[in-house]
UniProtKB/TrEMBL annotation:
Descriptive protein name: Aldo/keto reductase
UniProt xrefs under PANTHER family: 2,5-DIKETO-D-GLUCONIC ACID REDUCTASE (PTHR43827), NADP-DEPENDENT OXIDOREDUCTASE DOMAIN-CONTAINING PROTEIN (PTHR43827:SF3)
Annotated binding of substrate, by residue: 118
Chain coiled-coil ranges: none
An MF annotation (GO) of this entry: oxidoreductase activity, acting on the CH-OH group of donors, NAD or NADP as acceptor
Record has Oxidoreductase as a keyword: yes
Originating species: Salinicoccus hispanicus
Recorded family membership: Belongs to the aldo/keto reductase family.
Amino acid sequence: MKGLRNVGRSIEDTYTLHNGVEMPIIGLGVYKVEEGDQMKDVLLSALEAGYRHIDTASFYGNEKGVGEAIKASGLPRESLFITTKVWNDDLGFEETLRAFDISLENLGLDYLDLYLIHWPIEGKYTEAWRAFEKLYDEGKVKAIGVSNFHQQHLEDIFAMCRVKPMVNQLEYHPYLAQTEMRAYCEYHDIKLEAWAPLNRGGVFEEPVIRELAEKYDKTPAQIILRWDVQNGVSTIPKSVNRSRIAENIDIFDFELSDEDMKRIDGLDRNQRIGKNPDNFSFDD
């Protein structure tokens, strides 16, 4: 992978997107984190631990809580990288522009660092992408991308876009290594980002992962997240537990050997915990 050895040595390391924007290599996902005290506690814990990338979505229903926690942190806006996503019901040109304004207001921000189309809803995502390009041209968002897009969806975007997606956020973990999509995105200079990188804990008891955790004196979660980083994949683990939030970002003092990386690669089963965008009916 390009530039593999140039990242993953420091909590402050970033990936450079194809438009020059620097994106932290690890962030915190806040899916199902509740508004109010829980969100404030989770985000302040994360920011204290060193996270600077926060990933939310309009569908999560907690953008206001993210914004309130950011404000409470007292950190300068330019030190943070904030992502949100437009939901399926709001795809379309005018609809997406309206949804963006609502998200920005909920977050209490003047701009977004990254805006993503949450799912590739047939017949709608190309119009939404036109809206994304407008927002990008106007400087309201520093980078634009997609989530859960496979090759055919990206090709639809390529056929009509002026600005290519900078990020594709996919389900990615040792049981779903997305080898072909990772290579396709790298070829097109699109950064792959992992959601559910820990398979909701479903890989922790895997013998290879446990053996490597003992070998490197790390937790199973740290082994998996380190594998992400060394594969050149941005990663956004989620937790509401203060100690695990800190644990998940403590992955910069060791490096997996090439042999051990291949052993984890070998766990791939093409096994999902989420929906497959190729055959999931979004009307269900």
